[in-house]
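Support request, please re-run this one:
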Amino acid sequence: QVQFVESGGGLVQPGESLTLSCAASGFTFSIYHMGWFRQAPGKEREFVARIGFSSLSTTYADSVKGRFTISRNNAKNTVYLQMNSLKPEDTAVYYCNRIQGNPPQGFGSWGQGTQVTVSS
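Re-run finished. Output below.
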């Protein structure tokens, strides 16, 4: 079955960096657009970043543009999110998923996510 295992989260101070990883399995990873989403306490899950199946195109939410970079390794069935200049408002549980539609939405099952907390 489709599975996503997110990792790399943690507690950091404002301005610091983190790199998240998401290992995917149960489907043909290389033919899907992939993305990252996040859900802050009391808020709905929101789109963060998207990468095309061949890595030629990327899209970011305005709130993270210029600070976050999405990438993928199709040989390892893994998608990454490099997060720089982190802000307290980036605090959330981060999830990866396959992407469809515009606006980008995840579909199918979700993983457990990885907690990112930005606090001084």
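The two ends are 40 Å apart (CA to CA). The chain has a mean pLDDT of 96.
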